[in-house]
């Protein structure tokens, strides 16, 4: 009843590896004189990465997966477009607090570099009222948990509803965790979709 979906796919290793170096170089070029991140620090790029030539293949993967999700949801012919796309680098010890992505329909993350201790994202129960009474349980299950931990690896691509709150635990690995997030919205929202339905 009323499921909350997170769609998970894995870019095939050949394409993943081909995309990796150009993306890492592009990100390094964006902060040429910046000192290395200190433990606990994070960095985010500008939000227009989807317009960069180095992201062309990734954008194509995102568009392909988005079309698949829209078909799954039986959404007709409405076009979705990427409205923002940015990289996040989390040094060891750095985390990302609970948040959602307002004013979009779908959001997602592509994982460029993960590692042991830096390979999860948490999705939180959107049913606020479900936490009013939360009796102790003898076992955490899919039916009684208030948080689902999704494991990711290099090349994982996630898509989820933009309203679904999520967070990232502190990086317990030794290397920087590098991911690319993005938002998608219906191109014709103001012109068509937001008109009264009655
Ligand atoms: Fe996010």
Report on the biggest sheet: 6 strands, antiparallel
Q: Structural class of the helices, strands and pairings?
A: alpha+beta
CATH level-1 class: Mainly Beta
What is the count of β-strands?
10
Give the overall shape, derived from the CA principal axes: globular
* H/E series: EHEHEEEEEEEEH
Gross CATH architecture: Sandwich
Number of helices: 3
* Fraction of residues in H or I helices: 10-25%
- What is bound: which ligands? fe (ii) ion
| Strand order in space, largest sheet | 1-8-5-10-3-2
Describe, in short, the structure shown.
With 198 residues, the protein is α+β, with helices and mostly antiparallel strands.
Description:
By secondary structure, this protein is an alpha+beta fold. The chain has helices at 13-29, 56-72, 189-193; strands at residues 7-10, 42-44, 80-90, 96-99, 106-113, 120-124, 147-151, 156-161, 166-168, 177-186. The strands form two sheets. Strands 1-8-5-10-3-2 form a six-stranded antiparallel β-sheet. Strands 4-9-6-7 form a four-stranded antiparallel β-sheet, with no helix packed on it. The longest helix is centred in the first third of the chain and has 17 residues, at 13-29. Bound molecules: fe (ii) ion. Fe (ii) ion (FE2) binds next to loops.
Main attributes of the structure:
single chain; 198 residues; alpha+beta; Jelly Rolls; six-stranded antiparallel sheet; four-stranded antiparallel sheet; 10 strands; globular; binds fe (ii) ion
């Amino acid at each position: 009843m009323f499921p909350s979906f997170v769609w998970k796919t894995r870019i095939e290793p050949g394409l993943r590896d081909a995309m990796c170096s150009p993306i890492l170089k592009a990100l390094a070029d964006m902060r040429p004189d910046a000192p290395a991140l200190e433990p606990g620090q994070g960095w985010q790029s500008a939000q227009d990465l989807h317009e960069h030539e180095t992201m062309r293949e990734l954008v194509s993967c995102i568009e392909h997966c988005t079309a698949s999700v829209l078909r799954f949801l039986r959404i007709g012919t409405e076009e979705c477009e990427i409205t923002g796309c940015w990289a996040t680098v989390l040094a060891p010890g750095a985390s990302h607090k609970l948040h959602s992505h307002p004013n979009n329909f779908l959001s997602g993350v592509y994982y460029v570099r993960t590692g042991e201790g830096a390979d999860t994202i948490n999705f939180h129960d959107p049913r606020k009222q479900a936490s009013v009474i939360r009796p102790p349980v003898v076992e955490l299950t899919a039916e009684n948990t208030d948080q689902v931990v999704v494991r990711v690896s290099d090349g994982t691509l996630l898509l989820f509803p933009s309203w679904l709150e999520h967070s990232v635990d502190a990086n317990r690995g030794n290397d920087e965790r590098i991911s690319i997030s993005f938002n998608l919205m219906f191109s014709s929202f103001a012109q068509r979709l937001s008109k009264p339905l009655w």
